[in-house]
Amino acid sequence: MTLTETETTGAGADTCAGPPQGDRRPDGADKYTISEVVALTGLTAHTLRWYERIGLMPHIDRSHTGQRRYSNRDLDWLALVGKLRLTGMPVADMVRYAELVRAGDHTYTERFELLRRTREDVLSRIAELQGTLAVLDRKIGFYADAGRALASERT
Amino acid sequence: MTLTETETTGAGADTCAGPPQGDRRPDGADKYTISEVVALTGLTAHTLRWYERIGLMPHIDRSHTGQRRYSNRDLDWLALVGKLRLTGMPVADMVRYAELVRAGDHTYTERFELLRRTREDVLSRIAELQGTLAVLDRKIGFYADAGRALASERT
DNA sequence: CGGTTGCTTGGAGTGCACTCCAGCGTTCTA
DNA sequence: TAGAACGCTGGAGTGCACTCCAAGCAACCG
């Protein structure tokens, strides 16, 4: 048996991913130029080529003249990468994850671990941010009061 | 009337700020060397000097031989800076905030605005992170299932 | 009084994640 | 068929937030 993960967003419950990447072409007719992918993902062409150079992307199809032609699958991968980037995961770790995906099924546990660690990081980052909110609210309260005091002084 | 904000953490409800910065000296005897501040804040001496150079710190007292002597007030400021840094606020904005504090009471509304914007940023960052958690959990679930499937195959 | 430790300075270097450039070929539009 | 628009490459540059360096002074220890 071979389990294949179709990195597809599918009809699933993926919560909002920034730019509404609506207009996908049906599978089989899915050949996007780099500028279409730019429009779809919000990344720059520079960044897309750079992702490829550093091994963060699988090998991208080329047209007969050597231009990149991205597939729906590539777009799905980019969506995942975008999410991982939002978690604050360093690019090097994303490259590591990409390598594991390329390496095949026997890397499942390592991928699992990598994602689990990332999840922990996200949770503690959220807690950290909530800690800063407390301080921010205290300060903001101070300035709001001060503003009112200054205003009433003028009365 | 002049309202002074004693950037003091005081007896307030400041939630955990990383390293338990317990051992403060009483006001009046509050003269810390740079290495003591390093131990207290977790920052490096390099960073402390750099903060000063870029205007993120008020002028720090010096000993008769020109060495820095930090006060409790400086430590309080550093604690706030640490919190702001955790929010992801760029250093340039923190410098701007420091300038406003130095400039005096008439900058209250601008400080208020800066903190309010930062608060909004923190809230949307939290929302963003919670969005990534959904994706992460879906992936992690996939790998967990796959792991179980692979294990049962071996039975 | 020599050595170690701690602190000073200005300026240079680092790592990350892009971001841009020059110089070229290809493809589309008028 | 001219010219704009789009894409290609390797390599250099950018901005941020530190991070380190060399050279030198000051204080204490044996």
Fold and architecture overview:
The structure is a homodimer of 155-residue chains. The first copy, chain A, is mostly helical and 155 residues long. Helices cover 59% and strands 3% of the residues of chain A. The first copy, chain A, is built from five helices and two strands. Chain A has helices spanning 34-41, 45-53, 72-86, 91-103, 108-153; strands at residues 61-62, 68-69. In chain A, helix 4 (91-103) runs antiparallel to helix 5. The first copy, chain A, is elongated and about 75 Å long. The N and C termini of chain A lie far apart (80 Å). Chains A and B meet through helix 3 and helix 5 of A and helix 3 and helix 5 of B. Chain A binds a DNA duplex (30 and 30 nucleotides) through helix 2. Chains A, B: Residues 1-29 are annotated as: Disordered. Chains A, B: InterPro entries: DNA-bd_dom_put_sf, MerR-type_HTH_dom, MerR_fam. Chains A, B: This is MerR family transcriptional regulator. Chains A, B: Residues 31-100 form the HTH merR-type domain. Chains A, B: It comes from Streptomyces pimonensis.
